[in-house]
Design brief:
It is built from eleven helices and seven strands. By secondary structure, the protein is an alpha/beta fold. Strands 2-3-1-4-5-6-7 form a seven-stranded mixed sheet, with helices on both faces. Helix 3 (122-150) packs antiparallel against helix 4 (152-161). The longest helix is centred in the middle third of the chain and has 29 residues, at 122-150. The radius of gyration is 24 Å and the shape is globular. The chain starts with 7 loop residues before the first helix and ends in a 5-residue tail after the last helix.
C-alpha cells in the first residue's frame, strides 16, 4: 500500500518494480496482457481461427495489410480478465515490411507467433513459411538485443525460457534451433488436404513435423470442423490467456497432427522422405537445408509475390463510395496540377551563378 507521503512518482516506480519482480507469475490476481502475431498464406484461414478463439460469430472479411483486435478472458471466477492482443498480417508474403510494427520491446516478453499454412497449396508451403519466419525472427532478435541493452537480465531470461518446452534430457537439444519466442504452426484446410494422395501427405506430414520440432514449435492441423478448430483454439488459449497446455499428441498420418512443443523427436520423425541415393546427391550444409531441398524437389516453389505491391484498396470496387471516390478523384487531379505547376516554376527559376 502506498504511504500518505508518497508522491505519484513513488507510487508509479513501486508499481513497475512490482510487475518486474512478478513477471511470469500467473498465480496472482492481476490482469496480464499478451500479444499474438498471426501470419501465413493469403486466404489461409487466419481470420477464421482468430474469430473462433474469441467466440465471435462473424463472417471473416479479407485482411487488409495489418489488422488488430483484442480479447478478454478470465481463468476463473472472481479473477480479473486477462487481455490478449491479436495482430494479423494480410497479403501472405507481400507485406513483409509491416512485420516489425507489432513487435516491440514493450511486449516482446509476452509475444508469440502463430504461422498458418494452407495445406491445400503444397507448392506455396515452403516459401511462405521460410520468408515469414525469417523476417519475423530477424526483427524479434533485433528487439531482444535492444532490450538487452537496457535490461540484460530479462533478455537472458527470455533466451533461457524458450528452451523450457524441451526436457533437459531430450536427445535433440544440440540439434535444434528454437524460435526466440513461442511459435505455433497451424496447418489449415485439412479437409482438402485429407483427399491428397498418401505419398503427398506423407511428405508434408514429415516435413512440417521436422520444421516444427527444429524451431521448438507446436503443430496442429485444422479445418472448418468444430472439433479441429477447438484443438487449434487450445494452443491459442495457452499463448493468449495462459490456460494449461494440452499434453495429448497425435502423429498418425491418417489423422490431423496435434503435437505440443517438445513432445516430438528426430528419431520419431525419421529421415527426409526421399531415397537414400537421392539424399546423397543433395548438397546441404544444415538439416533444415536438406529438408528444404527434398521438399522442393517434390513441390517446386510457386511464385508467391514476396514484397509485391498489393492492389490499392481505394481502387477496389467492393469498397466503392461515390462521395469519397469523387473527392479522391478531385484531389488527385489537384495534385497532378500542382506537380505540373511546380515543375514549370522550377524550370523557369534563375539561379545566381
Amino acid at each position: 500500500m502506498p504511504g500518505s507521503s508518497d508522491t505519484l512518482w513513488d507510487i508509479a516506480k513501486a508499481e513497475v518494480e512490482k510487475r518486474e519482480n512478478h513477471e511470469g507469475d500467473r498465480d496472482g490476481l492481476e490482469c496480464w496482457e499478451r500479444s499474438l502475431f498471426f501470419t501465413g498464406n493469403k486466404n489461409g484461414g487466419k481470420t477464421t481461427i482468430i474469430l473462433r478463439c474469441l467466440d465471435r460469430d462473424e463472417i471473416p472479411k479479407p485482411t487488409l495489410a495489418l489488422e488488430y483486435t483484442f480479447g478478454r478472458r478470465a481463468k476463473g471466477h472472481n479473477t480479473p480478465k486477462d487481455i490478449a492482443h491479436f495482430w494479423e498480417l494480410g497479403g501472405g508474403t507481400s507485406l513483409l515490411d509491416l512485420i516489425p510494427i507489432p513487435i516491440t520491446t514493450a511486449n516482446i516478453r509476452t509475444f508469440a507467433v502463430v504461422l498458418v499454412l494452407d495445406l491445400s497449396k503444397p507448392n506455396e508451403l515452403w516459401p511462405t513459411m521460410e520468408n515469414l519466419l525469417q523476417v519475423t525472427r530477424k526483427h524479434v532478435d533485433k528487439v531482444i538485443t535492444k532490450l538487452g541493452q537496457t535490461n540484460p537480465k530479462v533478455a537472458t531470461e527470455m533466451k533461457q525460457k524458450i528452451w523450457n518446452s524441451l526436457p533437459k534430457d531430450h536427445p535433440d537439444r544440440e540439434m535444434i534451433d528454437p524460435f526466440p519466442v513461442p511459435l505455433v504452426i497451424i496447418g489449415s484446410k485439412y479437409d482438402t488436404f485429407h483427399e491428397f494422395d498418401s505419398e503427398i501427405k506423407k511428405i508434408i506430414y514429415k516435413t512440417l513435423r521436422f520444421v516444427s520440432h527444429y524451431y521448438g514449435a507446436s503443430l496442429v492441423f485444422t479445418s472448418k470442423s468444430e472439433a479441429l478448430l477447438l484443438k487449434a483454439r487450445a494452443f491459442i488459449n495457452h499463448l493468449a490467456f495462459g490456460f494449461d497446455r494440452s499434453k495429448s499428441m497425435s502423429v498418425d498420418q491418417n489423422k490431423p497432427l496435434f503435437i505440443p512443443a517438445g513432445l516430438d523427436s528426430l528419431s520419431q520423425i525419421g529421415p527426409p522422405p526421399a531415397a537414400e541415393s537421392d539424399i546423397g546427391k543433395l548438397h546441404a550444409q544444415t538439416p533444415m537445408e536438406l529438408w528444404k531441398k527434398v521438399f522442393q524437389k517434390a513441390f517446386p516453389p510457386k511464385t508467391i509475390g514476396v514484397f509485391r505491391e498489393v492492389k490499392d484498396p481505394a481502387q477496389d470496387p467492393q469498397y466503392a463510395e461515390y462521395e469519397v471516390d469523387a473527392m479522391r478523384t478531385q484531389k488527385n487531379q489537384e495534385l497532378e496540377q500542382y506537380k505540373r505547376n511546380a515543375s514549370k516554376t522550377w524550370k523557369e527559376m534563375k539561379f545566381d551563378s
